[in-house]
Design goal:
This protein is an alpha+beta fold. Helix content is 68%, strand content 7%. The longest helix has 59 residues.
């Protein structure tokens, strides 16, 4: 018979490895067939003694009996089979009671799990959200935000190019200046100047401000700058060229004062952006004009000196006068020569009259020679009119040249002034800073809802991570 045969080594089965999943399944199967086991190891050992395959889901009295018939004849195995048979031979009432007990156990476990879930949600989500809401509604100091808008513009001439006029009304025209001003307003330099003039750090070190927003009394420059970056927001709209300024402070009046001061700082910086270019252009043009004016005055003084030293107002007029005298004398000489010729043509010429005419002609010829000599020859006691005329012409030509250069310098100066006017940048305020009458921050409801969403998201991510890790470890 089967019970009298001893299985050989080849027919004996190698016991499976008892992993955690194997032990958990052994406990479940032992509970299904009614075995009373103290722990997972005991359940696995009982099933192995009965010859029940733990990994096989088909469990019944027939399978248990078959495995018991093929197993060695032992008293303990027979007792276990009897117990199993007794447990399976239950009436309908007992079976229904067992089902109800199992359902109650499942309900109890679900309630416990739901209670633990609600407890975790209460501890990790609701309680932190409550603390955040309590801070916003009861502890946080009210902050006031002052908003303003301004644009940076520059002067444009009426004859500006078509391409320049195309972009003049957009943010591209002064984008570099606007970005520079934006960077300046968010810099440490602006914060330090605001602190020096209006006491920025002292304002946020007041005792009535809550601990999270108050600046400590021994705060460093970096701590103050971090607070400044948080409370001063500067945005630039590239399409419209508008700079948006938002300043937050613990008082509406102080917020407005901070905003006005920052706008003044921005206006000064805008003026400084083109100041050096304007000054260089104007300085160069002014120096050229001053030099031309000085040289022109020197040329005029030289002409005046020559006129005074030579005693000639105009060389041309003096020469014309001298030539008029010479021409008049030569005409007189011609008349006298004609008279002398008529006298000498007589058979008995008047000697006395002819001698008088000859002496008059000689005197006039000498006078003409002297006048001509005076025009061209220079002596130790006098200077010729030709020399005087040459000196005056050179001086007058130099004076005219200097006058032309002065006129050109004046035109260049006016051009530089116009160009410098084009380089002028100025700040136009679109939205004037107005002190708010109600606190802007904290936004209590929005902040509380945001905190709830953040804590819930963190809880869900951590729960999913733990569940995945637990599943990976149990497999």
């Amino acid at each position: 018979m089967a019970n009298d045969q001893t299985p050989t080594d080849s027919e004996s089965k190698i016991p499976p490895k008892r992993t955690r999943a194997y032990l958990r399944k052994a406990r479940q199967k032992a509970r299904r067939i009614g075995l009373e086991a103290t722990d997972d190891e005991h359940a696995a050992r009982l099933l192995e003694e009965l010859g029940v395959d733990v990994l096989n889901d088909d469990v019944s009295l027939i399978n248990v009996g078959k495995t018991a018939d093929s197993a060695p004849a032992q008293q303990d195995s027979t007792d276990l089979i009897d117990n199993v048979s007794a447990n399976f031979m239950l009436n309908d009432a007992d079976r229904l009671a067992e089902v109800h007990a199992i359902q109650r156990d499942l309900i109890r476990r679900r309630r416990v799990r739901l209670f633990l879930l609600m407890l975790r949600l209460l501890f990790f989500v609701v309680l932190p959200t409550f603390l955040v809401g309590r801070y916003y509604y009861t502890i946080a100091t009210d902050m006031y935000e002052t908003q303003s808008e301004f644009v940076i513009q520059k002067s444009e001439a009426a004859g500006a190019s078509a391409l320049g006029g195309l972009f003049s009304g957009t943010g591209f025209a002064n984008s570099a200046d606007s970005i520079t001003v934006q960077g300046y307003l968010t810099s440490r330099e602006a914060m330090m100047r605001l602190d020096d003039e209006l006491g920025y750090r002292a304002h946020f070190q007041q005792e009535f401000i809550d601990d999270l927003q108050r600046l400590s009394s021994d705060a460093s420059l970096e701590d103050a700058y971090e607070l400044y970056e948080k409370n001063v927001k500067v945005g630039y709209d590239l399409t419209e060229g508008v700079i948006h300024l938002e300043v937050i402070a613990a008082s509406p009046e102080i917020s407005q004062a901070f905003s006005n001061a920052l706008i003044d700082f921005a206006e000064e910086r805008v003026d400084e952006l083109s100041k050096r270019v304007r000054e260089d252009q104007m300085d160069g043009a002014q120096k050229a004009y001053d030099t031309a004016e000085t040289e022109m005055f020197a040329a005029q003084a030289e002409v005046l000196r020559l006129q005074q030293s030579r005693g000639v107002l105009s060389a041309d007029a003096e020469i014309a006068a001298q030539m008029g005298i010479i021409n008049s004398l030569e005409l007189q000489i011609e008349d006298k020569l004609l008279d002398l010729a008529e006298i000498l043509d007589n058979p008995n010429p008047n000697v006395i009259r002819s001698d008088i005419l000859e002496r008059e002609i000689d005197r006039r010829i000498e006078r003409v020679a002297y006048l001509r000599q005076k025009l061209t020859e220079t002596t130790s006691s006098s200077v010729s009119l030709a020399t005087i005329s040459g000196e005056l012409q050179i001086a007058e030509t130099n004076m005219l040249t200097r006058q032309a250069m002065l006129q050109q310098s004046l035109q260049l100066f006016e051009t530089a002034r116009v160009d410098a006017g084009r380089q002028v940048r100025y700040l136009s305020i679109g939205v004037t800073p107005i002190a708010p009458d109600v606190p802007t921050y904290p936004r209590k409801l929005e902040g509380t809802i945001l905190a709830f969403i953040i804590f819930m998201g963190i809880y869900i991510m951590v729960s999913l991570t733990v569940a995945i890790l637990r599943e990976q470890v149990s497999v």
